[in-house]
Amino acid sequence: MGERVHNRQRWREGPVGRAVMALPAGVVGLAVLGTVFVVLPGVVVDHDLAGASVAPQERLKAVNDVRTTLLQVIGGLVVLFGAYATWRQLRVSQDGLRATQEGYVTDRFSRAVDQLGSDKLDVRVGGLHALWRVAEQSARDREAVISIQAAYLRTHLPWPPIGPEAPAADMPINDIAPLEARAADSQVALTGLGVLCQTREQSWVNLSATDLRRADCDGLWLPEVNLDRSCMEAAGLYRANLTQASLVSVNLRHADLKTAILRQSRCALADVRGARLVETDLRDADFTEADLREANLRKADGRGAIFRRADLRLADLRGTDLSTADLRQARLTGARASGHTRWPSDFDHTAAGVVVTEDPGPEPPPLLQPPGMTAQHPPLSSMP
Predict the structure, then answer these.
(1) pLDDT tens column, 22-80
(2) Which of 143, 277, 278, 368 could make an S-S bridge to 258, C-beta 3.0–4.6 Å?
(3) Mean pLDDT of 263-273
């Protein structure tokens, strides 16, 4: 009995059995097609005629017209079904391609992070560039890459500096090499972070207590970046965007901030002595108790800025717009101003000790230093 059942199963699975089993389905299909194209057109025509008598030729023509219409409808359904099947296949292919790409990006991300722990400088630089490339190609990984770059800077360039290779905290700035020369990997991380921050979504990036002396930040976007207690002495910040950045107690001595944007930034207690803030946007910035002695603020826009108890002695304020600035208890003895300097309506700059001199005229174009070269900064007369 079991052998008979087994033979019957084998016969059904064979080519002859499959053909025989398919006969009922084929018969049903032919019956449906016959009904649709042979019987249904005549029924439709007879229903429309409602018993009226017509010539056989006219009835045949009407039946053929119905058949033609049915063929067109069925052809349209076939085309729609084919289009749907193609769309589904395309979606499946796209999902597969996306999964493959995500796996490839994840693999590149992991290998790049592993490179950051290498003892070789060129391997670390390559890993940072690889992370930068991943962030540009994958929006999902951009925030993670920015966080890794910020953490890399905080751990490799802490302030105060530690380790035998880091320049001492009290070393004269003219004796310190540019960041690109003394820590090329950190400069790459800083540049990548400043580029990726243009399209970031998170609110704050933490770079507090970081040693960025002589760092190249020209043109970088660092809005809403926390740089509190960092040392950015002699850093290049030409045309940098520091909107709403936190620069509390930061060291910006001799920094080049020409045409930078510090709008709504917090610079309280900052050391900005000798810094170059020519044509800088300082609107609504907070410089409470900041030290701006000998700073060059020519033609800066300081409307709405807070300089309460700030030290502006010997600062260059020629052409600066301070028309709505808060200068309460600010020290201005020896500061230079010109006829183009705009003061608050209730402020007596003469009584504050401001010296009025000639306007210097247009500012010369910036002279960008070649990589690896340093500008020599004269000692500040306000240094202890």
Answers:
(1) 556 556 666 666 666 666 666 666 666 666 666 777 776 776 777 787 778 778 888 88
(2) 278
(3) 98
Those residues with Cβ within 8 angstroms of residue 150's Cβ, 6 or more apart along the chain or in another chain: 193, 205, 206, 207
As a whole number of angstroms, the distance between CA 176 and CA 215 comes to 11
Residue from 224, 293, 314 nearest 262 by CA: 224
Q: How many Å apart are CA 234 and CA 274, to the nearest integer?
A: 9
Q: What is the 3-state secondary structure (H, E, C) of the chain?
A: CHHHHHHHHHHHHCHHHHHHHHHHHHHHHHHHHHHHHHHHHHHHHHHHHCCCCCCHHHHHHHHHHHHHHHHHHHHHHHHHHHHHHHHHHHHHHHHHHHHHHHHHHHHHHHHHHHHHCCCCHHHHHHHHHHHHHHHHHCHHHHHHHHHHHHHHHHHHCECCCCCCCCCCCCCCHHHCCCHHHHCHHHHHHHHHHHHHHHHCCCCCEECCCEECCCCECCCCECCCEECCCCECCCCECCCCECCCCECCCCECCCCECCCCECCCCECCCCECCCCECCCCECCCCECCCCECCCCECCCCECCCCECCCCECCCCECCCCECCCCECCCCECCCCEECCCCECCCCCCCCCCCCEECCCCCCCCCCCCCCCCCCCCCCCCCCCC
More confident residue, 353 or 47: 353
* pTM of the predicted protein model: 0.74
Amino acid at 150: A
Identify the weakest region by mean pLDDT among 154-158, 172-176, 379-383. 379-383
Better-scored residue on pLDDT, 371 or 133: 133
Report the residue count for the chain: 384
Token pair listed for 113: 């992070």
| β 225-226/205-206 pair status | parallel
Task: Kindly report whether the peptide bond that precedes residue 158 is cis, defined as omega within 30 degrees of 0.
Answer: no
**Tokens linked to 264:** 């709504």
pLDDT level of residue 4 (50, 70, 90 thresholds): low
Rounded Cα distance between 26 and 288, Å, is 90
Q: How confident is the model at residue 94 (pLDDT cuts 50, 70, 90)?
A: confident
Q: Tokens 């808060």 — which residue?
A: 326
Instruction: Tell me the backbone φ, ψ of residue 14, rounded to 5 degrees.
Output: -75, 170
Closest by Cα among 248, 241, 208 to 222? 241
